[in-house]
């Protein structure tokens, strides 16, 4: 494999382009390391790349650590090892995945995007059972029967390719290590020696309900099939030997628990801190059983993940783990969890979650604690989720070959707004992909807004995406609203029962059968009367409008208004106000209303507000403009992206936005250089 690549690179040397230079650099870097089996190896690698800072200054696990991690992740900062943690002898490692390059390195790669593409073949092999005939033949009973079937299968398939694929897949399968050889069993604690207070769980945000494990690898088995699952679900400490597990209903851990609960049985759970960084990253992948995280982590990394068996159950533990908590969850036992500062910028509501009883702790003598951070995007959890997006894109292509790319937008917390591009091959295919994606994986129904564009549009360039919406999406036909469905409970507009609406926008170019082909609208000139009129006249509305920005693209004009709402549904009045002001123009007019604490020029925050506050069934207003009587197309929309009140149909209060205490922020600013950061 390497030889072929070397030959190819040698050829390229005679004709060096910047891309080939990069490819050579990446290949040489990848040659230097073949992946990391635990955090120590990864720390050494990060240090060799000058991407880890050791902090000797004492830090407080209550708020200070997270304030630092949050700042580092927002500023493309390095990973950090806090060696002097108040109240604990264990160091805390953090911000490991708070930059895309480190996400890539975790898989022994220089570019995770390229890696996923490279590995998509192996994925297809697993998912489609491509080598099924050869495998079936190999399993036939009887020597002569086996030979005959193998010969038949080899003739029918490209067996050399199959053999190479199978060999590659096999080399990536997990490898079992004898229990006594794994360092995370150097110390074993039971009974009264179990005390979670000796570990540096962190309190992340001021209103959090308690101290948390923020990067636990929670491992369970399906009580029926015995299939294994590893997921990252935060855990809040409730006692010296108990934590609650925040696994959402759709997650595999919870599904396993429901099955155990249905037969009133306890369920074994192990929780690992640390391990092979590729396996830690795989904790965020949503996979469909029987494919599990150990397998996919190995496949992505290119070599098998090492595991051992837990002390008191048949659960696997990562051989590279730092600490393993073994225990059980009991049927029917729930306690309050939260609030917790979430990935969407809000505190999550308090929920009833099961209790994990720690019965045994096994750990290394010099164990390292590993913590991750989350909060208003973009922070560490969002980079981790982006890795899932890359993998999901390749998996979705197996089932929907016309799919080209996906952007699960950072702005929406990498959940609520997704953009997808397709190579359109038939009419209304955009709608097909919407339905496919909304049901593709356990997490997909929680995508609120799904925008489909043609493959000529770069899904990662939201300016281009917005242009496509303005040009090709007729609000009467291409804004498709599902008024009620499953929705994310953490989203402020979701009802307490977990119900919300979805919006699909078909922003692909329309075919004759689909209606309008040409956009019969006029181009907006940035200095035209209409633009000047809006900019000078908006103040006439009154005190509650604080600021207005006008964005012009092609035939569309988008007015962004920041509003200090004085009464229910005032945003609707504001939308009508601008609609009347622009009446008679032949453009697509959009009006987006946001709260007054949002800067009307901050495109990221506006996009965030639209993603978290707009209820598609009641906060999207059209028509803004009827164009051309013959074609009957409607372009332009109004969106109320302000925080919703109870008298606007909300059945619960919108939770508080996450905000760090001012004193902590000041302390961190003051000590920044003392910590050792540049
Ligand atoms: C740092 C971090 C924290 C997370 N916390 C939670 C959580 O508390 N609850 C949850 O259900 N998912 C959480 N997730 C997302 C899950 O790990 C992810 O959806 C994963 O696919 C779940 O595994 P499963 O599909 O096998 O259930 C978190 C992810 C990360 C990266």
Explain this structure to me?
There is one protein chain. By secondary structure, this protein is an alpha+beta fold. It has 5 domains: 1-32, no CATH class; 114-171, no CATH class; 175-370, Pnp Oxidase, Chain A, CATH 2.30.110; 387-514, UbiD C-terminal domain-like (3-Layer(aba) Sandwich), CATH 3.40.1670.10; 529-648, 3-Layer(aba) Sandwich (UbiD C-terminal domain-like). 32% of the residues lie in helices and 22% in strands. The chain has 19 helices and 28 strands. The strands form 6 sheets. Strands 5, 6, 7, 8, 9, 10, 11, 14 and 15 form a 9-stranded antiparallel sheet that branches. Helix 6 crosses helix 13 (380-399) and helix 7 (132-138) packs antiparallel against helix 8. It is globular, with a radius of gyration of 27 Å. The chain starts with a helix and ends with a helix. The model has no long low-confidence stretch (mean pLDDT 91). The structure holds flavin mononucleotide.
Q: How are the secondary structure elements laid out?
A:
Layout: H1 2-13, H2 18-32, H3 39-48, E1 52-55, H4 64-74, E2 79-82, E3 92-94, H5 100-106, H6 112-128, H7 132-138, H8 143-156, H9 159-171, E4 175-176, E5 187-190, E6 212-213, E7 217-221, E8 228-232, E9 235-237, E10 242-245, H10 252-262, E11 267-273, H11 277-282, H12 293-301, E12 306-309, E13 316-318, E14 323-337, E15 351-363, E16 369-370, H13 380-399, E17 403-408, E18 417-422, H14 429-438, E19 449-454, H15 462-472, E20 479-486, E21 499-506, H16 529-537, E22 545-553, E23 556-563, H17 570-581, E24 588-595, H18 603-613, E25 620-621, E26 625-627, E27 633-635, E28 638-641, H19 662-675
Parallel strand pairs: 1-2, 3-16, 4-12, 18-19, 19-21, 23-24, 24-28
Antiparallel strand pairs: 2-3, 5-15, 6-9, 7-8, 7-11, 9-10, 10-15, 11-14, 12-13, 14-15, 17-18, 20-21, 22-23, 25-28, 26-27
Helix pairs in contact: 6-13, 7-8
Bound molecules: flavin mononucleotide.
Flavin mononucleotide (FMN) binds at residues 214-215, 229, 231-234, 246-248, 251-253, 283-286, 372, 374, 381, 384, 442-443.
């Amino acid at each position: 494999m390497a030889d072929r690549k070397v030959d190819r690179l040698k050829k390229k040397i005679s004709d060096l382009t910047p891309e080939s230079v990069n490819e050579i650099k990446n290949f040489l870097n990848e040659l230097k390391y073949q992946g990391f089996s635990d955090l120590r190896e990864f720390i050494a690698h990060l240090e060799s790349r000058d991407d880890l800072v050791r902090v000797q200054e004492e830090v407080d696990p209550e708020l200070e650590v997270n304030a630092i991690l949050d700042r580092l992740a927002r500023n493309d900062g390095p990973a950090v090892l806090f060696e002097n943690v108040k109240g604990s002898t264990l160091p805390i490692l953090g911000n490991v995945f708070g930059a895309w390059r480190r996400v890539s390195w975790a898989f022994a790669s220089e570019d995770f995007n390229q890696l996923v593409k490279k590995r998509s073949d192996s994925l297809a092999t697993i998912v489609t059972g491509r080598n099924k005939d050869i495998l079936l033949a190999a399993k036939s009973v009887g020597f002569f029967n086996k030979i005959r079937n193998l010969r038949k299968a080899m003739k029918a398939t490209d067996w050399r390719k199959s053999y190479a694929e199978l060999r590659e897949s096999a080399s990536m399968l997990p490898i079992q290590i004898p229990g006594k050889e794994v360092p995370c069993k150097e110390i074993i604690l039971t009974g009264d020696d179990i005390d979670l207070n000796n570990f540096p769980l962190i309190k992340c945000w001021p209103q959090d309900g308690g101290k948390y494990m923020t990067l636990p690898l929670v491992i369970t088995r399906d009580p029926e099939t015995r299939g294994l699952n590893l997921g990252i679900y935060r855990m809040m400490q409730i006692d010296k030997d108990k934590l609650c597990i925040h696994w959402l209903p759709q997650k595999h851990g919870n599904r396993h628990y429901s099955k155990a609960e249905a037969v009133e049985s306890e369920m074994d759970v192990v929780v690992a801190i640390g391990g092979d960084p590729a396996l830690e990253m795989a904790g965020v992948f949503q996979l469909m059983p029987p494919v599990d995280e150990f397998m996919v982590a190995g496949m992505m990394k290119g070599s098998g993940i090492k595991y051992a068996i837990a002390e008191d159950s048949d659960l696997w533990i990562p051989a590279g783990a730092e600490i393993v908590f073994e225990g059980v969850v009991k049927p029917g036992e729930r306690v309050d969890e939260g609030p917790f500062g979430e990935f969407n910028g809000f505190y999550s509501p308090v929920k009833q979650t099961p209790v994990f009883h720690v019965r045994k702790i096994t750990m290394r003598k010099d164990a390292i604690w590993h913590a991750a951070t989350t909060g208003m995007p973009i922070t560490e959890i969002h980079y981790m989720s982006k890795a899932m997006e890359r993998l999901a894109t390749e998996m979705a292509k197996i089932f929907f070959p016309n799919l080209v790319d996906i952007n699960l937008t950072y702005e929406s917390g990498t959940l609520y707004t997704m953009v997808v591009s397709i190579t359109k091959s038939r009419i209304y295919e955009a709608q097909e992909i919407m339905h496919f994606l909304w049901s593709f994986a356990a997490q997909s129904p929680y995508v609120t807004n799904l925008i489909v564009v043609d493959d000529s549009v770069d899904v990662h360039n939201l300016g281009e995406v917005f242009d496509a919406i303005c040009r090709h999406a007729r609000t009467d036909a291409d804004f498709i609203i599902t008024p009620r469905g499953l929705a994310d409970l953490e989203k402020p507009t979701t009802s307490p029962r977990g119900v919300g609406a979805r919006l699909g926008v078909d922003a692909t170019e329309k075919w004759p059968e689909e209606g309008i082909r040409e956009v019969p609208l006029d181009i907006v000139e940035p200095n035209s009367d209409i633009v000047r009129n809006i900019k000078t006249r908006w103040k006439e509305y009154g005190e509650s409008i604080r600021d207005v920005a006008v964005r012009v693209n092609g035939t569309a004009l988008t007015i962004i208004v920041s509003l200090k709402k004085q009464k229910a549904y005032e945003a609707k009045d504001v939308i009508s106000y601008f609609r009347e002001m622009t009446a008679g123009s032949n453009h697509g007019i959009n009006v987006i209303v946001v709260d007054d604490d949002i800067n009307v020029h901050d495109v990221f925050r506006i996009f965030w507000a639209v993603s978290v506050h707009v209820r598609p069934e009641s906060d999207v207003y059209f028509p803004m403009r009827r164009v051309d009587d013959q074609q009957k197309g409607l372009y332009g929309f109004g969106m109320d992206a302000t925080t919703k009140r109870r008298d606007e149909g909300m059945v619960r209060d919108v939770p508080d936005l996450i905000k760090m205490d001012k004193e902590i922020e000041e302390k961190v600013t003051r000590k920044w250089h003392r910590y050792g950061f540049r």
